[in-house]
Design goal:
Number of domains: 1
CATH architecture: 2-Layer Sandwich
Number of strands: 6
Pfam families: HMA (PF00403)
Largest sheet: 4 strands, antiparallel
Organism: Tripterygium wilfordii (Thunder God vine)
Domain HMA: 1-63
GO molecular function, one term: metal ion binding
Number of helices: 3
Protein name: HMA domain-containing protein
Shape: globular
Structural class: alpha+beta
Strand content: 25-35%
Distance between the termini: 36 Å
Order of helices and strands: EHEEHEHEE
CATH class: Alpha Beta
């Protein structure tokens, strides 16, 4: 079993669409969504490229999570944390 992390652009109702796309794949055990950092962790036996393809087929922009995304997310939350308005970032 493997956990793969993805950066997915999430706006509003996209979490429901994401879960629907991933529910069609065999071997997915668990899906954790963090909408604030746009991070999705998928645990299961499915191949990471098949998971990415399923997310993109659902109409969502996605890529593998990297250390660079972690740094950018930490910087953005520290710099622009006070400029949030109902889950939309202005920067």
């Amino acid at each position: 079993m493997e956990t793969v992390e993805f950066k997915v652009e999430m706006v509003g109702i996209h979490e429901k669409r994401l879960r629907k796309c991933l529910s069609k794949l065999k071997g997915i055990e668990k899906v954790e969504v963090d909408a604030n950092s746009q991070k999705v962790a998928v645990t299961g036996y499915a191949h990471r490229n098949k998971i990415l393809k399923a997310i993109r087929r659902g109409g969502l922009k996605a890529d593998f999570w990297s250390a660079q995304n972690e740094l950018l997310n930490a910087y953005a939350s520290a710099s622009y944390g006070s400029l949030r308005f109902s889950n939309f970032n202005f920067f």
